[in-house]
Amino acid sequence: MSHYFWVATGSLLFTVGLILTAKKPFFLMAMSTVRLLDMMLNTSIDENEKTTHLIKRLSSLLLWLAVFLSTLGLLFFGFYGLLYVVNNSSLEELYAQDYSSYKFIVALSVGGGIPLLFWPKAQGDYSDWSKLFHRLILDHYQVGKVLFSLDKAIFLKKNNLNPQFVIVSGLARSGTTALMQMLNDQDRFSSLSYANMPMLMGTRIWKIFYSPKNTRLQERHHKDQMKHSLNSAEAFDEYFFKVHLEDKYISDGHLDLHDLSDDTYHQYLLYQNLVAPNRQTYLVKNNNLILRYESLRKHNKDFKVILMYREPMEHASSLLQQHKNFLTLQKKEPFALEYMDWLGHHEFGLHHKPFRLSKLERKFADPDTLEYWLALWVEYYSYLLKFGDDQNLLFVHYQDFLEDTHKVEKTIFNWIGIESRSKNREKFLKNKQDMDLTADVQLSEEATEVYHLLRQINP
């Protein structure tokens, strides 16, 4: 049989073997390389501790490098061994083959290309290579800091900061995503979007290489009829705080209140400037704002916050349903859990972490119960009631937003001081679900009292 047939066959087997056996050690080698680099860039830990970590990470890198090279070697010699056997040739005859001929190159290309054409695609929204890229960037905060420094050095020619930013916040499931996207649709703001992923700390550099045109909408994993595309604004600026604070406000079981230093606040304004250049208004959704709201107010009295809330029993039930939804999703797709951890989304799911806003011990500690989420609602909005006199904090009721979206939008733009370009808006469709609205009587009464106080702030 033709020598070139066996070249194509061997190339095909080599490619299949490469995908099946070498991909995992290659990915682990890549991760070990960036982990080593990340530790080398870390200046915040003791030198002795740093040396220990460097040795461990270098050992891991060398191990996976050896595994990867060994795998390549076995596959390579297996390929040539096949040619040697089927051609019944001596090594001298094998070496004497004309490997520069077009027939050899065509046979090699066809054999190696066939598996790539028919290889099954990865399940879910992200390919294995995309997941690797996300892990390489988002898992390594020191790399993120370097990207941020490069962005500043290249693109911030003038220190032209704009402290008039706008934050949409509220307890999860209060309509913050819908409101933020509605405001962003008018092109009066600049926001982080899915197009910035995973280079959240190097947004301007990344934009040079990646500027998606795909506007195809798809429903998000919440199964709540909210749709997004690669250009949709989303809640990504929490990653800035995770990088700069190095997760110090995230404990094993809670998210803690914390203060921002003068430098961290200044860097935040620089970050906003990169996302919203030329003194454009920076708009972001951040449901963790409550953790640093008082600190931000000490640095800036003028930025605007739109805080959404919802009828407590309905809100608690929605949170419980999403918690169960994400428990199922994250068990089925571990990358979804990694993704939410990177972005500081601990609202529900396997790594759910409530806000620790007081020193009171939680009476309801089981997230699988409605009482747990209702107690969380009471604690969250009771804490925010003390800011009710803040003229730069606007409370927006979820039901008002649904029933008269255009009126709420106009009110918000007038309050911000920006002219609205929207003529009219259709009502947002509420995702109807069966809800269990029975809970502890005392807790329900407490929630109702807090809810009435919220309604009085912006009647």
Low-confidence stretches: none
Q: What's the number of extended β-strand segments?
A: 9
Based on Cα principal axes, name the global outline. Answer: elongated
Largest sheet: 5 strands, parallel
- Give the oligomer, counting copies of the same chain as homo and different chains as hetero: single chain
Tell me what portion of residues adopts beta-strand conformation. Answer: 5-15%
Mean pLDDT: 86
As laid out across the biggest beta sheet, the strand order is 2-6-1-7-9
Helix content: 55-70%
Instruction: State the separation between the terminal residues, measured CA to CA.
Output: 86 Å
Helix count, DSSP H or I runs of 4 or more residues? 17
N-to-C SSE series? HHHHHHEHEHEEHEHEHEHHEHEHHH
List keywords for this structure.
single chain, 459 residues, 9 strands, 55% helix, elongated
Description:
- The chain has 459 residues and is α/β, with parallel strands linked by helices.
- The protein is 55% helix and 7% strand.
- The chain contains 17 helices and nine strands.
- It has helices at 3-41, 47-87, 91-95, 102-118, 128-138, 141-155, 176-184, 203-209, 238-245, 262-275, 293-299, 312-332, 334-342, 370-385, 398-403, 405-416, 441-457; strands spanning 166-170, 189-190, 218-219, 227-228, 255-256, 281-285, 304-309, 355-356, 393-397.
- The strands form three sheets. The protein has a five-stranded parallel beta sheet, sandwiched between helices. Strands 3-4 form a two-stranded antiparallel ribbon. A two-stranded parallel ribbon has the order 5-8.
- A hairpin with a 7-residue loop joins strand 3 and strand 4 (227-228).
- Helix 1 runs antiparallel to helix 2 (47-87).
- The mean pLDDT is 86.
